[in-house]
Amino acid sequence: MIRNISIIQNLKTQTQSTPNKHRTNMKKQNTNHTISQIFLIMAFILPQNVYPQAFHQALHNESLQATHHNQQNLDSESLQMPAKQAKQNLDSMPFFVIARREAIQNPESRIQNPESRIQNPESRIQNPESRIQNPESRIQNPESKTQNLDSTQNLATQEPTLTTLATQPQTQSNTTQPQPQPYLQPRLPQSAESPLYLRYNLGFDFFLDNTEGSDPYWATRTLYAIRIAPEIGMGIGQNHSIMFGGFAIQNMGASTIPTKANISAYYRYEGEIFRAYFGIFGRRYWRGEYPLSFFRQDFLFFNPNTNGVLLQYISHQDSAINGYAEFVFDWFGGNLAKRFDEFFVLASGKVRFLNNYGFVGGSALLYHFKNDEVLSQDGAFTPSGLPDTQLMDKIYYNAYIGVDFVPLLRAMQTAQIQFGALSSIERKRRLSGLGAFHHAMGYEGGFKLQYKGFGLEESYYFGDGQMYYYSEYGENFYDGLPFYRADRFNRVNVFYEYRNNWLKANLSFMFFSLPQTFALQQMLTLSIDTHRLFGK
User: Fold this and answer.
1) Global pTM?
2) Most CB atoms closer than 10 Å: which of 114, 150, 389, 508?
C-alpha cells in the first residue's frame, strides 16, 4: 500500500511541472481531485490501525520528492490524451485499483534500480509536444489497462493485516528514512498490545434486616453488617481472567474482627453467549431466578461464595425466543478426614417467547448433606451410642409460567404476573434404615410492578408446609424463608430501588400474613461494584 501511495505522489509532482500552462492547470485540478478521492477511499478500505501509518509514510515520501523536483515521471497516457478526454478518464477510472495491480503483479521491478529514474530527468521534457502527436493511438485499446481488473478488485477489497503489510516488499532508497513518530503510530487495542493486563475489584455491601412478629415460624432478629470483597487478578485476552481475593464480614457492634472471612480464587471465561467459573467465586455471578424457599436474602449475604463450578448459557436477547440456562455445583462444606460430604447441585432456566410477552421457567436444588455431628441433633442414636442419622437428602423444585407486560407498557420497569408449582422432597438416611420421603406439594402465584424505582410486589403460597425437619435443625440447616413452613401465607413488598452501572440500593418494607401471625420485615441493602465502575 505504501508503494501505491508513492506512484500517486509521482503523478501529482509530475503533473504540476508540465510546461503547457493550460494542461498544467487542468492536470493539477484533476490530480488533486484524484488524490483526495484515493485517500478518502483508503480511509474506508484500510483497517483503522493501518491507515494512520500508511498516511504518515505518504507524507514522508512527499517531502523527499519535493527535494528532487526534477524527478517527473508522468504517465504518458495522461499527457497524450486531449484535455477533455483525460479529465473524463481520471474522473471515471478507479486509478487506485490499477496502481495497486501494477505494484502487486511486479513489485521487484519498482526497486531494481531506483537511481535510473533520475539519471537524465531533462530528457523527459525536451519535446513535450511530441508526446501528444497521436493521442488516438494511446486509447485504441483502453481495455488493455483493465484486463485483470476483476482479480485486482478482489485484492483491493481485502483488508490488509499487520502480517501481510510486514511481508510486502518495500521500496528501497539510498536515503535513510526516519521512523514514524510515536504519536503517529497506530494504537492497537490493549489485548493486541499485550495479552495480559491487570483486573481488580473492591466490592462493598451493606446489609440491614429487622424482622418483627415472626414467631412461632421464625425467631425475631436484627442483622446489621458490612462486607468487603477485594479482588485482583490478570486478564488474558478478551475473555479469560484469573482472580484472587477474599471477603470479610463485620457485624456491627461485634468484638470479633472480622466476624467472618474467607478467600476467593477462580478462573473465569466470559464469552458472548457462554460463561464459566471454576474455583471459589462470588454467588453474585449467579443469574438464575430462585424462589425464597431456596435461598433467603440474609443467607446469600453472609455466605457469599460458591466453591465449585458455575456454567451459564445466555442467548441473544433480540430474538423472538430467547432465554438462559445455569448450572451450579457448590461444595459448601464437609470434612474429608471424617468422610463428611456437604454440597448442592443447582440448576435454573428461563425461556421467553412471543416477543418477550410470555415466559416459562424452572429451577431445581439438590442437597446432599452427610455430617452425623450436625444431624445427630435430632436425638436419634443406635443402641451402641452412635448417631443414627448419617445423611440428609433435600430436593426442591419450582416450575412457573407468566406474562410480561413491559413490551406493551414501555414506561414500566417491571410489570409481570406468574404462577407455578413450588415443592420439596426430604429424606433421612439412618444406620437403622432409610427414612421415608416427605413430599410437600405447594403452589405460588404473584405479580410485580415497578415504575421509576418505586415498586409493589405480592405473592401468595398455598399447599403443604415445607421444611419438614426445621424444628430439629433450625435455620442454620435450611437456607430458605421459614414462612414456607405454613400451609399458606401472603407476602407484600413495598420497595424503592435505585441502580446504575456500579451502585444498587434497595429499601423494602415486607408484610407477611400467616395463620394467627402477622410479621413485618424492614430491609436496607446497598452494593457497590467497582469492577463496573472502572471497567477493570
Assistant:
1) 0.65
2) 389
